[in-house]
Amino acid sequence: MIATPDGDPTPAARRRALLAIGSVLLLAACYALRPAPRQSWDEGRFGPLVPHRTFPTDCSLCHVAERWDVLKPDFTFDHAAQTGVALEGAHAAAACLRCHNDRGPVAEFAVHGCRGCHVDPHEGTLGSDCTQCHDQQSFAPTGQIAEHARTRFPLAGAHLAAACDRCHEQARVGRFVGAPLECAACHQDDLARATSPDHTALGYQQECQRCHSPTAWDAAHFNHATFALVGQHRAADCADCHVGGIYAGTARDCYSCHADDYAATSAPDHLTAGFGTSCEQCHTPIGWGQNGFNHSTFPLTGQHAAISCDSCHAGGTYAGTPRDCYSCHADDYAGAQNPDHVAAGFGTSCEQCHTTATWGDGNFDHDAFPISGAHGGLGCSDCHTTGNYPAFSCIDCHEHRKSEADAEHDDVNGYSWSSPACLQCHPDGRE
Hints:
431 residues; mainly alpha; two-stranded antiparallel sheet; 2% strand; elongated
């Protein structure tokens, strides 16, 4: 060691000396902590001696002749056959002296189960049955999720992936008791960040489970029983109806939120028509344009179901709209030529012949002169040749003269000519 003139070591010499001493101490510490082979002796770990009172007197069964502290490399011992206790998992690879040492008979420790050899990091708070979480393969716990289901807080959703110490602050030192059961105890930061709606301003501090589930904090579902959210309302944001974060006293009628839609509607113009503000009479939550007015005063069937409102309610006028066909179909009546309704003097009760399916599909009820048999294939003009539609009888078209009548008509000229009389012999107009 190099010294200064006055005999003190130089700084460099001191550093080298300290490094040498540190290296020696480090080697000693590593030696003391090194894993001991299963069949070897480590006085620092196992103590100076092991009671051999019950061991065989033939030392060469276990020891080599050269050294007392080394066991024979081919030494084998059937622990299960000789002691009745099978060594499983990590115990099968443990050094013999980990259990058989100078602390005392193994039986005195084994009677206490796992705690006889292993210090309980949970300090008895989780009971004495270590096998509920641990096995002999590794000290690392297994099956915690299943065991957690036995508690008052079963793990589900996102909680399944959470680290234990997220809720159990002392989990790393083996203490799990005292964890809170209330959501807000762990989710204060989420609660403070919630702004839609603002939970803090509204006093939403407890019973998070009323809206949230363990699957995800954002997947909230409030029981909106006071105003069922269906159709488009399900996609609306809370603030769309609860403006300014005010929830108490929110109106439940449609018009309060949809006044602008009401005023902007032009087909028909609700304001001009004087429609009421009970929007649900025509509209549903599926869509504002999906209207379904109950047109019970004039059922909309056939072609009427496909036309726009202003086709009948011209100018947006709804009060006093006539309900008879002719008021809307006067031009159709005047233009009809087969037959000519005007010339024939047909009445304006259009529904006697027409339906709402189509205007051209008229079907006159010919009760005064039944159309059947040979008459069924005739057109109106075959009988009504002049366009007139007076009452007819068979004899008007089918004259009988004595010179032409056969034996069956001897008394025809003297008979009362009428359709009922003719039809007695000629039903359905047959000859």
